Structures are given as C-alpha cells and as structure tokens.
Amino acid sequence: MKIWLLLFGLISFNTLTLAQDDGLTIVAVGEAEVEKDKMVFVPGNIPSNANTSQKKIINEMQSLLQNDFSFYKQYFDVMTPEGYSKAAKDKDFSDLKKKNLRFLILSNYELAPGGQVSVEGSVYDISSEEKLATVRDTFSANNLRAKGHDISDQIYRKIKNSESIFKSKIIFVSDRDTTRSKQIKELYMMDFDGRNATRLTFHQGTVISPALSFDGKKVLYSLIKNNRNKNRNVNLYVMDLNTKKPRVISSRKGINSGAVFMPDGENIALTMSHQGNAEIYALNLKSGATRRITKHFAPDVDPSFNKDGSKMVFLSGRSGSKKPMIYIADPRSQEKDVKRRGFVGDYNATPRFSPDGQEVAFSSWMDGKFDIFRIDENGANLYRLTKDFGSNEDPTYSNDGQFIAFSSQRVLSRTKAVQNIYIMTREGEILGQVTDNFGNCSTPRWSKF
Amino acid sequence: MSVIKLRPFSFYTKKSAAIHGVIVLVMVGLSYWQWEKGEEQRKVNIKLVQSAVRVDVVSMPKLTFQELKALQKAGVTAGSAPKAEPEPVAKAQPAPVPDTGREFIKKDENAQKKPSFADLMKKYSKAKVEEKPVNKKKVATKPKDQGFDSKTLSKLQGLINRGNKVSNGQALVGTGDSANLTELQAYATQVSNLVRPHWKLPSYLVDKELQCRIKIFIDERGKLVRSEIFESSGESEYDTRALKAVKQASPFPAPENLISGRTVRGDILLGFPL
Fold it and tell me: Rg (Cα) of chain A, in Å, rounded?
C-alpha cells in the first residue's frame, strides 16, 4: 500500500512539474531609470536703483548658479527662466507642476552698503509644494565667485543631501610661461569650473606629478630644475598653501616622484629608487622616517589611496609580462593583501581611486593613444570612458566621486599640439573643457574636500 | 450473474509485478525524456556563460560606456521586434557542414582576420555544428539544426553586446535554467524588455521602494488591448508612470498562435520593478 502511494505521489509530482505553466506569468521590468529633475533659477526682485556694476554682478551671480547646477547633468535639467518667471514670482505651483518642474530657486536681491549686493535664495520643491531652504549672503564683485559657489553648495546639500563639487579646486601644471630658450612648467590652482587660476610655484623649472592633500591645505610636487649641474636630480617638494613656501622633502638619488598624500595628512606615499628598484614608500612629513609599502623585484609605482586609507591602488610589473598592471594592497603594512585587479591593456598608467574606494579610473594605451578607463575595486565592470577624443591621461575623481577630470591632448599639426583639462561624468559623458588658452595644461588633481 | 473466479495466487503476483514494471518504466522514461530535454539547454547555457566570460577577459573594451548604453537601448528594441535580426548574426549562421576537414580550413581563415563580433559569433556557431553528429535524429528534423536558432542567437548577441556588464536577472522565481522558459514566459520577457526603456521615475519616487504590478492584455497582432493595475503601489503617480511605460512601449511583437489566447486573456503580469 505504501509503495503504491509513493508511486502515485511520484507520478503526480512529475505531471505537476510538466503542467506548471498554467496561470499568470510574472516578469520583472526592473528598476526605473531616474528621470532628471527639471530645475529653474528665477531672479526675483532686482532693486530698481541698482547701478550698472551692481546690475552686472547680479546677472553674473544668476548665471553662476545656473551654470554650477548644469554640471550635474545626470540629475538636473536646468531650464532657462523664460516661461517660468511669472508663475514663479506668483508662486503658482500648480502651473509649475504642469510644466513638470521639480525645483525652483527664486532669488531676491537687495542693495547693501559699500556697493555690495545681498541675495536671498529660496529653494522650493514643486512636487511637494514646500520650501526646502532659504540661503542668504552678501557679495561684491571681488568675492562673487567664491560666494556664489558657496550658495550653490548650500542649495545642493538641501536638495541632494550630499556634498557638491562647487567649492572644490583643481591643481594642474601649465607651460604658459615657457620661453623659446627655456621650458617652464609651473603649478597652478583653479576653481572646479576653470576660473580663478592662480600660480603656486615660481621655480622656473619643470614641475611634475603634483598632489593635493585630502584636507586641501598642502601640495606635493617633484621638480626638475633647469640649471645644468652634475647633481641634477628629481627632488620632491611640499608646499603649505597658506604660506606658499616650498620645502624639499626628499632628494634621494634616483626617482623621488609620484608622491601622493595619505589621508592622515602626516604621511605621504611615493616612488623611490634609491635602493635600486622603483618601490613605493611611506614617508612621514615631520620626522622624515620612511617605511616600505611594496617589496618586489618588479617595479611598483603610482600609488593612490581611498579616503580612509585602508586601500591603495598601484601599478606593478610583477605579473611577469612587461605590461604594468593594476594591483590593490593594504598600505598599512608591507606587501599586505596584494591583489591583482587588471588583466588587460598594453600599457596602463595612473590608476586613481574614487574617494569612496569603490572604483579606479586609469588611462591605458589603445589604438595609438591613451584613453580613460574605469574598473570596480573588485576587478569587475571594466568600462571604457573616452574614445576619439585626443589622447587622454591623468584621470582624477572629484570630491563627490561623480566626475572625472583628465587632460586631453590634440595634435593640431606636425609640430603643434594642445593639451587641456576636461571634465566628464563618471559614466564618460563629457561636459567640456575647463582650461582654455592657458598654455598646455596637464596632470589635473581634484581636491577631495 | 457473474461469478467471481478465484485465480491462483501466482496470477495476482504476476499481474501486480507487470503493473509495477510498467509504472517504473514510464517513470524512468519520463525522467529520461526530461533530462534529455534539459541537456540541450544546459549545453547552450554553458556556451552562453563561456561567451560572456571570454569577451570579458580577452582585451580592453573597444566600446565606451556611453556607446554600450546606447547599444543596449537600441539592441533591446531592435532585437525584440519581429524579424529584426542584427546584421552580424545573420552572417554568422554557417551552412551546416558535416565535413570536419573543410571546417578546419575555414577556421584557419578566421584566425588571420582581426577578431570582430561577427567572428566571435561564427566561432560559437561552428562549435555547435561540430557537435551535431552526436545529437539524435529528432533534433535533425528541427530547424534548430541550422547553428543556433534565432532566439538563442539574439540572446547571445545581447550578452556579447553587454560585454563586461553584470546585468540584473529578470525571472522572479528561480526556474533553475532557461529550459523551463515556456513560450509565454519568453514572450513576456520580450515584452518587459520593450517596456524597460520607457520605465522612468522622477527622483523623489525612486528612493521610496515602491512596487506595483500591471496586468496586460495583448491581442494576436501584438496590439495592447488593455492594461490594468493588478497590485497598486499606493502612490498614484508611480502607478501612472508604470501604465505610461507600458502604453509607450506598445505595440508589441505579435505573439505566436499557441500563446495568443493567453496573452489576450491577460496572463502576463509586469512587475515594476519586480
């Protein structure tokens, strides 16, 4: 009897699985694509007694706010105020809703003493019809850009609840002072949007591989001096951005370059070859003590750290082939947890961590030029980001990890080429050139604060 | 009046044994048949995985992220529209050549060329041809014999196009392998692929982790007859957006006769997102 039951059970089970496809079939469509939020910046009251220069700075402020938010193409569709002005000023939310508007920033201006202008920006979320924030500040022609970026940043924080790039800086090297007899490459710093470029170094030499500390207070760079003598060497300098005074840190024989700050700000990591073979060392800025991070007969170069300093990405020839490949290690002790992450590419260069340490952007030689690629920290999702866009090198992540700046070189003729700094989203959508007519600009480094 | 004739005990034993035997045979047969059916699909699955992995590791990606994104969108619409086969796929289908010697020469020719997607495709379909003699007669009569059938090919193409991207699964229930994918399920997947590009949300609805399900009714020509909310998300804007996505994606490819009765009855549920 039991056997019969068992047999029948088995048979009915079999037929069940065969007849499974009756009834409803459910398929998943998957996660929705996020629609961009339409936003508009509407100038409210402009005082009628403002003079021409005051009117000018009001207009400039308005376009700065609009321009800042247009960088975040992946989130916002910044509209021109035409067609929204009237409804915005009347606070006619239902009309704005009809136009699918999400954010309205209405700024009212007033004259302040000393030719200054004060601004009050109100941020509205049209979908919930509520006021998210009010931002107030007073500005003049001199501090307009700094104040403007600060206002943008406050608005962004209210809307997205995270940090923005608006107050960040980019340091880079430009050869604009090169004369016919002397090649001069000096270090400059500019706002993220390419404005306010200021010169930092005056060595009359060639500055290479600069780095900015995580708190943005110090820079590191290597210098090749122009005077020829037998002690010519590539030395490493540190500069405090408050005093602008450079100081030599390392003048060991051989290479002293590719230095980057470690997140604590006290230690730096650099490539040195004084022991024969290029290796990565940690160096304490105060005591000058060094500690070896890599130890391998193959060369190890180009370290980059994530924000908490638990991971370091670098290039190494240890795979055996002559091609440098990307590796990740724990920099807190020697040769700890070294893992290979890249397996392809003829010549990989300058791997750079995103601030959160989830992604690595690097340049790689392909079809006769360098292009920017991106790979996840665990070695998955290798993406190409640039193509047919000149030769692209030195990627650097923005402080919020959403953008990558890089230098791109275009050959104009057989003897002429021009190199400029560009910004793209981390998905490779190019936003544009940030340096223009400023000599050849290279090695951008985006601040991480 | 019928008289119950008592038979010897051995008669019943034999009868019982015979019935048992038949049942066991039927069961063995059934499970063998199912296993056999799965075997073919398993081979395809392994190939699909291999093709994905190979494209991954061989070299740096040629296409950029933006291009892949565009391709994926275009691929979804082109791949699922009826009769819209991607060019390289059609070329890659080789005539079934039983002579292995000739095939060998052909392969060498391929090796000299620069490897392209089309060549990759060719390689995989070749491999299938080599296996053909092992397969049984019943397979030989099917159109499947011409390399990979079009469905598998477009699947392959999709995978290769996506290249080094980890994509999200679509099935809600673990069906084990795609052998269990019925006609209707395949068609429903096709429909969901078409709806996906239109499925958009404003950012304020994205983080709320809402879900709704929509029942769709498609007639035999692929026209969307009706769509209704089966399970609401509770947020009317979310439901409207989902309905809008379905409407924008229609008309769909015509379902095959076998399943058109069920599609018009509304047997397909689309889950937003699951």
Answer: 28
Is the Cβ–Cβ distance between A117 and A77 less than 8 Å? no
Q: Chain A neighbours among B 56-95 (CB < 8 Å)?
A: 56-69
Measured between alpha carbons, how far is B55 from B66 in angstroms, rounded to an integer? 18
Per-residue pLDDT reduced to its tens digit, A16-26: 333 334 578 88
C-alpha neighbours within 13 Å on the C-beta side of residue B126? 19
Q: Which residues of A touch B233 (CB under 8 A)?
A: none
Using the beta-carbon criterion (under 8 Å), do A34 and B189 form an inter-chain contact? Answer: no
Predicted TM-score (pTM) of this structure: 0.70
Please choose, from the candidates A245, A207, A216, the residue with its C-alpha nearest in 3D space to the C-alpha of residue A440.
Answer: A207
Distances (CA, A) of B29 to A20, B33, B235: 19, 6, 52
| Residue A160 CA: distances (Å) to CA of A32, A125, A152, A402, B207 | 19, 12, 12, 13, 12
Contact by Cβ (8 Å): A392, A441: no
Nearest to A383 among B61, B170, B268 (CB): B61
Residues B11-40 as b/e (b if ≥16 CB within 10 A, e otherwise) read: eeeeeeeeeeeeeeeeeeebeeeeeeeeee
Partner-chain residue, chosen from A27, A384, A429, that has the shortest CB–CB distance to B188: A27
Q: What is the ipTM of this complex?
A: 0.74
